[in-house]
Specification:
Layout: H1 3-12, H2 17-30, H3 33-44, H4 53-73, H5 79-90
């Protein structure tokens, strides 16, 4: 997947979390932790457009993947508990 194509797809459909997952997976293989972290932050900033379960399920998986990335790849301890508490502050 090319970066420019992915960026264009996200401009058209920013709440398409499958595109975010593909883009994040691609960047994670490059190993640039600050870039991946920034992408996760951008992705989680896109709150689902409706209160439908299918949208929120993908969004929650995005949060969980972010927490796992921080703990496993970025070596930041106890991120899962932080990620679970953080959405409460956003409400």
């Amino acid at each position: 997947m090319r970066h420019t194509g992915t960026k264009q797809e996200l401009k058209v459909a920013p709440a398409n979390y499958d595109i975010w997952f593909d883009y994040l997976r691609l960047e994670e293989t490059n190993g640039d932790i600050p870039t991946v972290r920034e992408l996760y932050e951008r992705a989680i900033a896109v709150v689902p457009p409706a209160k439908e379960k299918r949208f929120w399920r993908r969004y929650i998986f995005l949060w969980l993947n972010y927490a796992l990335f921080e703990e496993v790849d970025a070596k930041v301890p106890r991120c899962i508990s932080c990620a679970v508490r953080r959405p409460e502050r956003r409400c």
